[in-house]
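DM from R.C. (forwarded with permission)

"hey, sorry to bug you on a friday — could you get me a structure for this? deadline for the figure draft is monday and I only need the backbone to look sensible"
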Amino acid sequence: MLNMVAIMGRLTTDPELRHTTNSIPVTTFTLAVNRSYVKQGGERQTDFIDVVAWRNTAEFICRYFKKGQMMAVEGSIQTRTYTDKEGRYRKVFEILANNVYFTESRSSSASATYETKSDDYSDQEDNFNLSFSSGDADDFTVIDDDEDLPF
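My reply, with the result:
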């Protein structure tokens, strides 16, 4: 079976770090994600998708992301059920974040990504403004394709 999700959107609020009774860090937040299809003459619709992140990923999100910032999330869909205060049965769909990525720089002029599998984020802060979009034709070497290939 396969359960993989990738979404990109903007944070609707500042993420807040909480801890379980066993002191495990967790955060829940909502991403505003634009739909890719727009009806002719209509306005683009936005979905508000709930995401939950645990442990180092949760700490990383709360440390480096703020309301309105663009974020990409890779994870899986999970469901849970509960009974609300009025006794009604509720079912919740949310994304369990495995990795999160920056999709814009602090100045919004460059693009960078960072996987949250690393345990040390403090040394990575200066690397977030990397941009790999610039290149030049002189960066490549011309290969004489008359030669035999080595394989």
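R.C.: lifesaver. The longest strand covers residues 70-83.
me: no worries. The chain has one helix and six strands.
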